[in-house]
Design a protein that fits this description.
150 residues; mainly alpha; Helix Hairpins; 2 domains; two-stranded antiparallel sheet; 2 strands; 71% helix
């Protein structure tokens, strides 16, 4: 099984577990004399099977990510770098939006509001981070589709 397939199955299992959680909650109580819409015992059994499979997949995915190396970095290292780049880009983009907003003055006597940073320079930096994120993500995706799950 390819790593990408395992990642897809993990996502499906996580969705399924979330759905089972809701269904269990919906069938936790009924009025006296009524029966639940679904058997909580069956739902709990299915939840257990899903969690056992999820645990196995997570363990194997993590092991594969730690052992797969590209350009001198493990897949785990690449994922950490990608996640931090995403966060950096979100924060920087928000800061740039705030820094470049125009503040309208209605009279010349009103206080002038100025940006505290060089917006153009920071935008170039943001563009570099975005390029780096694309390249890192492409490398990770390529590895996901070519690496066998351990």
């Amino acid at each position: 099984m390819k790593l990408a397939t395992a990642l897809s199955e993990r996502a499906d299992l996580q969705r399924r577990i979330s759905e089972l959680t809701v269904r269990l909650r919906n069938n936790a109580k009924v009025q006296e004399g009524e029966t639940p819409a679904e058997d909580p015992g069956e739902l709990l059994s299915e939840l257990d099977r899903c969690l056992v499979r999820l645990e196995e997949l997570i363990r194997r995915i993590n092991d594969t990510n730690n052992r797969t190396v590209s350009e001198g970095k493990s897949l785990t290292d690449l994922i950490a770098a990608r996640d931090c780049l995403k966060q950096r880009i979100i924060i920087l983009r928000d800061f740039l939006n705030a820094s470049s907003e125009k503040v309208t003055r209605y009279t010349k006597t009103e206080i002038r509001i100025m940006s505290t940073v060089n917006v153009a320079e920071l935008q170039k930096q943001l563009d570099g981070y975005s390029r780096q994120l694309r390249e890192t993500d492409e490398l990770i995706q390529g590895l996901n589709w070519t690496t066998e799950l351990i």
